[in-house]
Amino acid sequence: MSALSKKTMFANKHLRFKKAILATAVAVGCVTPLMAAELSGRVLDSREVLLSGVQVSIPALKLSKVTGHDGRFAFANLPEGNYQLVLSYAGRSQQQQQVQLSGDLALGDLSLAVDSNIDKLTVQGQLNSASKALSQQRFASGIVSVATTDELGQFPDKNLSESLARLAGLSVEPDQGEGRFIRVRGLAPDYNTVTYNGTQLAAPEAGRRAVALDVIPSDLLASVEVSKTIAPEQAAGSLGGTVDIKAISAFDRRDNFYSLSGEGSYNQQQSETSPKFSGVATGIFDIGADKDALGVAFSASYADRKFGSDNVETGGSWDLDDEALEEFEQRQYSISRKRQGAALNLDYRPGGDTDYYLRTLYSEFVDTEVRQSLATEFSDPIQAGTDTGAELVRGIKAREESQSISAVVLGMKQQLDVWFWSLEGGMSKADEVTPYSLADGQFETEFEEGVTFLGGDIIRLQAPDGAYEAGNYELKEVEVADTRTEEREHNIKLDFGRDLLTSWGAVELKAGAKFSDRKKTADESLWLFEDLEDAGVSALSLADYSHSNARYGLDHFGPAVDPAALMAMLNSLDNSDYLDDVESQINDFRVDEQINAAYLQGNWQGEGWQVVAGSRYEHEQRDAFGSEYNAIDEEFSPRTYSGSEAHWLPALISKFELSDNSLLRAAATTSLVRPNFAQLAPAFLLEEDDDELEASFGNPALKSLRSTNLDLGMEYYPDELGVMSATLFYKDIEDFVYATDLAGYGDYAGFKAAETYVNGDDATLYGLELNLVQQLKGLGGFWQHFLLSANLTLTGSDAQISWYDDGERMTRDIDLPSQSDRTANLALGYEDEQWSLRLAANYKSEYLVEVGELDDARYDLFSDAQLQWDFSAKYKFSPALQLYFNAVNLTDEPYYNYTGKHQFNAQYEEYGRTFAFGVQLSRW
């Protein structure tokens, strides 16, 4: 295609995009209702705490609103008349109030009264947290799961991802025993989106779209809402769900507020104590003649957690025909993880119906990690107890890795007579930096006999005494790396609409457009120090770099490598002589994505009905830049890609109230997610092995994954605080992405290997979510202090992968990676005026981690089932002062991966128990 043709095509697409926006505006503007007045107010409980999630309805007009975090509600352009106002909130009886509307009416503060004894228990505790979350879930138009900041504080979780894993349909992907990434309904973290007040957060890691939520302290947040049905007004980018982090605001509380907490924790595995501090302060101020017009909220958090793990892994190095092990590695980790963050949020409400707001977030995560390792490679694959020869390699990795995520959202929203509109600009930046550090240092020795292994899940080395003497190991090579990744996302969006009252119900029409730009860059430099004797290095024995034995709890380990001594030796050399040119360039890439979007959405409320319907259009322009290296000719050349795709994403979401206590939900939606950056990176490596060609390369031309989603659920809310719900879901996923080998097909017919990523056939995901939350109030006076929470998600999936064998296409069926058949949570809480206790369990069944060999399912890597028990206790000296105790991983649950069958270890890791004591001081 000529350059002129491309420009013409690009211009036509943008012309169609502008026409779509214009048509949307005309469609919304054509509605001309007759309305007269505005009704507004704010809802508090009897302790004057603002209540979010309260449904305020006017039955005569078939109209309802749900209060936000500031407790506010507003109905615009209502006909004059007498109306009954109904307030509904989880666990509390409905409250009714008559209003006379003959012009704009500000009701002020409405108190949602309950029994005073119960209210004493719920203002700060578990019951209040559950009420907020359940109310927001009940009155949402779609299927959502909500965790408020109070709810997050009820569990002894170390970060946000672990807290979210308590919700129905969610589970966590761990790292070093700490939750990092969230899976929604069994879909891998890269298939879900994380936003901050609607602005998509950038991801720090080079190859991923998934945001590691352990970077973000939960102390900085008001709540987290997980949308499992995506409405047209929400940006595309997820198949499982969108995790929206809501920022704190000064207007979330009626008066000025502060809270300070300090904590010390102890990890058994490392015998280390770790501090944690956090604080929140909010204030509301007058600006000139405008009373209570400016809200300022600030929060900050700091934690320095010292922990570690003991590990033994084979990485799947089994000869499964003979059930024999080829090699394994023992590892001991010592980690200091510093997590610090801050948020400053401003709200300006000068009066009338105009709000201006600024939301900011900065969070940094710094890992200082030292990993001691002992790798054993047998002369031949052996079964347990069989004597053989082996090469033993003692290794060291020592690095300081930092990840940061920042976000800024600036916006305004306004009600203008029959219109409402908002304009918002957002920016998010994330980076991951590992400066010049030890990636792998290797000291090796060899034994002709006397080496074997014992054990099952935990594999232990049996070797001669010389295997544990530092003087027997000689320095082979050292790899040093410097890596930097950065992602930036900028967006601006405009939303507008109007309300319409008709005899058949209330309609809210909305439309909008969003323009976003996202850039991901990765840069890596690698040095390989080898043949050091030729460089004049005389200190080549491990004895020159070892001063103690490693603390390894699974087996006798022997001497540890001192990373400082090894780096001191390397710093005496000229590192430019050891730069690995190929590895330092082949992994560098940049991917640019420009996304233009528009939507039209209607929200109708009738007698017991609510229906949201509409469609979203998204157009993506993708440009990728990388390198190709021909190892045969030893030449680099640039490799670039430019392409685009567009999608229409219709949605229909409905809710029907079967009775005052029960409702039915149904939804048919479409969603998409773009391939991750490791798959899109355009690097291409061509090599030759025994006169046969081998290639490995990314595929920037991959299509986005698109899903058609069906949901059907029923919810029952008893008179007491609680819910019983069941939701069926089904996802038909097109263009599922997987790794494959194209050798023997098309352009790679003469290749021995051609490893890349491709779009495959459809995949399906289906399941059932069951959720129960119940205050045991109906059993008698004592039982009202208990809250039972339980959920179970049953999930199944089907996907197919393919490859080529001598030019013939071969296929086999697999489960979707990261999809557990069963995930469950159970929590029993007790609370009175002084004590708050909670025992919680989190379970997930085994799941496929990755495909080991395309043509042999026996080598697929699985993660074993995990059940973790945690306990928390709080003692309240007063509403303002409390002490707390947390115990994490009470049963010392390990992390275990296996190859094909449970008996074939792929990775075993222990983390120990963690105990924490803390104090919290609050001004209410």
What is the overall silhouette?
globular
Largest sheet: 22 strands, antiparallel, barrel
Number of helices: 8
Q: Any idea what the CATH architecture is?
A: Beta Barrel
- Distance from N terminus to C terminus (CA atoms, Å) equals 67 Å
Structural class: mainly beta
In the CATH scheme, the class would be Mainly Beta
The oligomeric state is single chain
CATH topology: Maltoporin, Chain A
Rg, Cα atoms, Å: 30 Å
Strand content: over 45%
Number of domains: 1
Average pLDDT, rounded to a whole number, is 87
Tell me the CATH superfamily: TonB-dependent receptor, beta-barrel domain
Low-confidence stretches: 1-35, 115-124, 151-155
Percent range for helical residues? under 10%
| E-strand count | 47
InterPro entries: Beta-barrel_TonB, Beta-barrel_TonB_sf, Carb-bd-like_fold, Plug_dom, Plug_dom_sf, TonB-dep_rcpt-like, TonB_rcpt_bac
Family: Belongs to the TonB-dependent receptor family.
Membrane topology: Multi-pass membrane protein
Subcellular location: Cell outer membrane
